[in-house]
Write a structure and sequence with these properties.
The complex is a heterodimer of chains A (265) and B (398). With 265 residues, chain A is mostly helical. Helices cover 77% and strands 0% of the residues of chain A. In chain A, α9 runs antiparallel to α13. Chain B folds into two domains: 214 residues, Rossmann fold (3-Layer(aba) Sandwich); 169 residues, no CATH class. Helix content of chain B is 34%, strand content 27%. The chains are: A mainly alpha (265), B alpha/beta (398). Chains A and B meet through α1 and α8 of A and α2, β6 and α3 of B.
Chain lengths: 265, 398
């Protein structure tokens, strides 16, 4: 890893991070504020009146307690879609962007191995995922404790976030791999966005009704079993491990690919 | 063994683009010019030397290390100026220079300050707002600042004004004195003329020649256009020149339907050096054409005969233009390489033998001129020759 490059990347992608994490924090704060044990009944009525619509956004059950409430309202959709966009943009910038505009020549005209440059960019991706989860989860925990002391099941909350990080690492890995494969940034963006949108869209469709339920087997996001994580089942952990493993495999594949390929510089 | 060794390298991009069986080497302490028209494969070769792409066949080595596999090792003692200007646009100039210095694992900024002063570069602003010349200067600073032993410079003076081109040439000459090994590509002979002793010439991805720059310089012709006070003088001058040329044993005059073509050497070339170039002091005159009061001609070698002749007339204006690289080596290698060069080179060679002037735009122009003057046209022959010359692909064979 190159410290110089890492610092430069963290600095130049900081604004992007602030914007996307800011959006997540805003949503998180709003949802937590909305939580009211007594309002659960009226919300349940609303959900029952339009079950498909709520289900599509991962809000099939209202949740009995604060953890189920935030897990369903945030982690089902918003916490996947927004970071996905963030990671697609970041992925493009980290490798394909430099190759596309030619400035990669300056990074490689240094006594550093190509793999080391690529690995540094991969680490930037990983660190961004970790920071997103840590910042958002910590803020949510503080807010929940402040507003509803003792209401949030911290252990369950931690489990959900550990797996959420897994999903982001998986998305990040896909974006990084695409960025390493393609020489043009639009191809990198196109490919990584296609994979991510496919996964999220199919998950949404599969939750709408029974007729489309089979689609759940076609999207990796089915492995992000929020209810299972809240309950702490082994199956949910299995899904979590798969996300981390797939993400790591994509990162490694990206580094290998970048190391071997011909660059149009 | 040379510092850089290119051995039998082929990198085929299809459609005749790329480099084919290219071999040359750059010796220790040498500044080697790497000449070729746009799209000849110069940048492709340099990318391979930098380890950005690997060759299909053959090998490239710098100081005995493989350019693709051991590229990071090689970079320790190498400075590189890319042909395409591309920086991290969001950075400021100085910020970028500092960043590159740290990436190169330098302590401080090395020679950057001194180089910036020499090139009169102020790099405070954002790179995206900078002019082409300023960006080029940043590239030069980045290539030279860690004082590398080996430099690979891809069209280094593009975008620089003549004053800065001079400063840059001085910089390269200094580095040469300090024993640096430099490979410098260009599509213009003038760029390498002052700095290089030897030049490698490629065309359509194939090696045309490795030649002393001095020899190339002597063989280079000048295109001259003289405007006389009236047509009668012009005609008289043109006739005199043609007659004069006909007398010279060194050149053979081929009357060609009103257009005069010269074939060097082939049969009566004993007086010429191999390659059809005149000896020092000798001169050969290429195609002569006249359009109204303007006479155009090509002179190779000594200008003396021409100047003495023209001084007898009332001259209103005189313009000279050096031969382009393309024309230069068409002329220079026209005959020599007929046997060696394969494929596309052969087409160019035919053209070269046919007429010195037929290759360039002027050849076509001159045909047009004779046509207008009502003389029987040889346009088909001329254009046929010129049209066969290989068309160069894009510089970027992506």
């Amino acid at each position: 890893m190159s410290g110089v490059l890492f610092k430069k990347e963290m600095k130049s992608n900081f604004l992007l991070f602030v914007i996307f994490v800011g959006v997540l924090l805003m949503y998180a704060a709003t949802i937590i504020y909305m939580f009211d044990p007594e309002m659960a009944d009226s919300l349940r009525q609303m959900t029952e009146s339009m079950p498909e619509l709520f289900a599509a956004f991962g809000m099939a059950t209202v949740g009995e307690n604060l953890l189920e409430f935030v897990a369903n309202y945030l982690y089902g959709m918003i916490f996947l879609a927004f970071p996905a966009v963030h990671l697609v943009i970041l992925g493009k910038r980290l490798v394909a962007g430099y190759v596309d505009d030619g400035s990669m020549a300056y990074l490689l005209a240094t006594p550093k191995k190509r793999a080391r440059i690529a690995w540094t960019q991969g680490v930037v991706m990983l660190v961004t995922c970790v920071l997103t989860v840590v910042v958002v989860a910590a803020a949510m925990a503080f807010l929940a404790e402040g507003l509803f002391p003792g209401e949030l099941d911290m252990e369950g909350f931690l489990r959900v976030n550990v797996c959420w990080l897994g999903v982001l690492v998986f998305f990040g890995g896909i974006c990084f791999l695409c960025s390493c494969i393609f020489n043009q940034s639009r191809h990198a963006v196109g490919c990584s966005a296609a994979v991510v949108v496919y996964a999220i869209l199919l998950q949404m469709l599969s939750q709408v009704g029974e007729s489309l339920e089979k689609l759940r087997y076609l999207t990796p996001l089915t492995l992000f079993d929020i209810d299972g994580l809240v309950a702490g089942t082994a199956a949910a952990w299995f899904g979590c491990v798969i996300f981390y493993a797939a993400g790591a495999a994509c990162m490694a594949a990206g580094v290998v690919c970048f190391n071997r390929k011909n660059l149009p510089l | 063994m040379g510092v850089m060794e290119v051995t039998g390298v082929t990198k085929d991009y299809g459609l005749g683009r790329g480099v084919f069986d290219l071999s040359f080497s750059v010796d220790e302490g040498e500044v080697l010019g790497f000449l070729g028209p746009n799209g000849a494969g110069k940048t492709t070769t340099i990318r391979q030397l930098m380890g950005f792409i690997r060759p299909d066949k053959g090998s490239l080595q710098i100081r005995g290390k493989d350019c693709f596999r051991e590229r990071d090792e090689i970079q320790r003692s190498l400075g590189y100026l890319p042909g395409e200007i591309a920086f991290i646009n969001s950075m400021k100039g100085m910020e970028f220079i500092r960043f590159v210095a740290r990436m190169k694992e330098m302590e401080g900024l090395g020679r950057a300050k001194e180089l910036m002063e020499r090139l009169e570069l102020r790099a405070d602003g954002k790179i995206s707002r900078m002019s082409k010349g300023m960006k080029q200067k940043i590239g030069i600073v980045c290539a030279f600042m860690n004082d590398p032993e080996i430099l690979i410079l891809d069209e280094p003076t593009s975008g620089l004004d003549p004053l800065m081109q001079n400063r840059f040439t001085e910089l390269v000459l200094e580095e040469r004195k300090r024993g640096k090994t430099i490979l410098m590509s260009s599509h213009m002979f003038e760029e390498v003329e002052r700095t290089c002793k030897r030049a490698v010439i490629i065309k359509a991805g194939k090696l045309v020649a490795v030649e002393d720059v001095e020899r190339l310089r002597d063989g280079r012709g000048k295109k001259i256009e003289v405007r006389f006070a009236d047509e009668a003088q012009a005609e008289s001058f043109a006739e005199k020149m043609k007659a004069d040329k006909a007398k010279t044993s060194a050149v053979r005059v081929v009357p060609n339907g009103g257009k005069i073509s010269i074939v060097h050497g082939a049969t009566k070339g004993e007086d010429l050096e191999k390659g059809g170039r005149p000896h020092a002091g000798q001169s050969a005159v290429g195609t002569i054409w006249r359009k109204g009061a303007v006479v155009g001609l090509q002179v190779h070698g000594s200008m003396d005969a021409f100047l003495k002749m023209v001084s007898k007339y009332h001259v209103l204006d005189l313009q000279t233009q050096s031969q382009s690289l393309e024309e230069l080596f068409l002329h220079f290698y026209g005959e020599d390489k007929a046997g060696k060069g394969g494929g596309s080179v052969a087409a160019a060679v035919e053209n070269g033998v046919e007429s010195v002037a037929a290759a360039g735009k002027d050849g076509v122009e001159s045909v047009a001129a004779t046509e207008k003057n009502g003389v029987e046209s040889v346009a088909k022959v001329e254009n046929g020759g010129a049209g066969d010359a290989p068309v160069d692909g894009e510089e970027e064979a992506r």
